[in-house]
Amino acid sequence: SLRYDKATLAIRKFLTDYPDVCYAHIAQYWLAETSYHTRKYDVAVKDYQTLIDQYPKSPKRADALLKIGYSEFELKSFSKAKAVLENLIQTYPGTTEAGQADNLMQKIRLQKIR
CB count, 10 Å around CB of 35? Predict the structure, then answer.
């Protein structure tokens, strides 16, 4: 939609102009969320991965990994989803995101059985 396009362009411009401001990782997260919620899963994967790669101290990293897993699941890239979710569970054990990752892993196992 036009509103989505305008919003994402504005956020991408902000991140290009101010990549090091203290809230840049939050802007990157919401850019990815916008893509995810508009079902542009391939774009969302790239945007969440940018958050992980460029902002290693961001508290949104576990959530970004989880959303990459969900996005890959929606794209039916089950082996990619599984690898990301396993990484999440190992890196952030005991978190809410790890629990959600475990639930999604069970759905992936069911998909592979069919």
Answer: 22
- Planar angle of CA 96, 36, 97, nearest 5 degrees: 10
Residues 35, 86: Cα–Cα separation, whole Å: 23
**pLDDT tens digits for 13-57?**
877 787 677 788 999 999 999 999 999 999 999 999 999 999 999
CA 74/CA 34 separation, integer angstroms? 16
3-state secondary structure the chain: CHHHHHHHHHHHHHHHHCCCCCCHHHHHHHHHHHHHHCCCHHHHHHHHHHHHHHCCCCCCHHHHHHHHHHHHHHCCCHHHHHHHHHHHHHHCCCCHHHHHHHHHHHHHHHHHHC
Nearest to 73 by CA among 37, 111, 28: 111
In angstroms, the CA 29 to CA 106 distance is: 26
- Whether residue 88 contacts residue 66, with contact meaning beta carbons closer than 8 Å, is answered with yes
Calculate the dihedral angle through the C-alpha atoms of 33, 36, 42, 47, rounding to the nearest 10 degrees.
0
